[in-house]
């Protein structure tokens, strides 16, 4: 009995009482937040109240004086896991690219270069993205012609299974490869001309658009690469080619074109221009204006700025030497020495 009491007293001194119920002796310590508990019920209460998962933070800072063999082995296993993770990503063809637009395959690189010549900023996603997998855009490099995948969104199109008063959703159609030299009116004709087979099949969905006709429709390109792009769009011209309409725009994989039978943008969207709207340009303009405002306070010439920069470095060396050779009482006349030093340097 005496040995059991001694063991209990030692354990109590080590963990103390339960920090949840404060009634019993603590038996467990949380690996993450180090809360002392006495039972499974108290453990669950502490996890629920503190939102704790009970997993030790393997990257938590531990002072060198408190490092033990357990911490050393934990760090060793953690580094091994990081190495295995990096090797696994290098071997996975779909996940080995960690930065967008770097080390693109040959066909994608030619597509982006050809789009750049057309003043189109084509952004290609990583291979594991669904939008990249769905993209069927093709570049006929011999003819130097793009065949774009286009997602057509007919705003407020009434579908048969919807109720008549529910006209808020859009009908979605996809064209795998659209010739960039055709006009938008020619590309959309198969959906609005009743003589076309596709138009007849989707008569119940596109009846309003077929009634208005191609001349009364408006085209809007879903904006990409701009602020609040989810609610912004560009106005497109029906009598211009797809190449001309996409010029000056940012395209992520393939364009999404919204079709309306009203001259204004679809509900929830606002129209923007294609010029001076990208985030990069906005950031660049802000930095340019800031640099222009700060220019009068800077050096007059680059040569003088370089001299002042060198002077600051030498000035730091001076302070290091002055502190090294100062007397014990600290009575060195730093001001006089610094004045002589400045005169010599400026000369």
TrEMBL record:
Domain of life: Eukaryota
CDD domains given in the database record: zf-HIT_BCD1
GO cellular component: nucleus; pre-snoRNP complex
Gene Ontology molecular-function annotations: zinc ion binding
Chain intervals for the UniProt region annotation (Disordered): 265-305
GO biological process, one term: snoRNA localization
PROSITE patterns, A to Z: ZF_HIT (PS51083)
Pfam families, sorted: BCD1, zf-HIT
Keyword presence, Ubl conjugation: yes
Record carries keyword rRNA-binding: no
Domain (HIT-type): residue spans on this chain: 18-52
UniProt keyword list: Isopeptide bond, Metal-binding, Phosphoprotein, Ribosome biogenesis, Ubl conjugation, Zinc, Zinc-finger
Family per record: Belongs to the BCD1 family.
Assembly notes: Interacts with FBL, SNU13, NOP58, NUFIP1, RUVBL1, RUVBL2 and TAF9. Interacts (via HIT-type zinc finger) with the RUVBL1/RUVBL2 complex in the presence of ADP.
Described purpose of this protein according to its UniProt entry: Required for box C/D snoRNAs accumulation involved in snoRNA processing, snoRNA transport to the nucleolus and ribosome biogenesis.
Designated name of the protein: Box C/D snoRNA protein 1
Source species: Drosophila pseudoobscura pseudoobscura
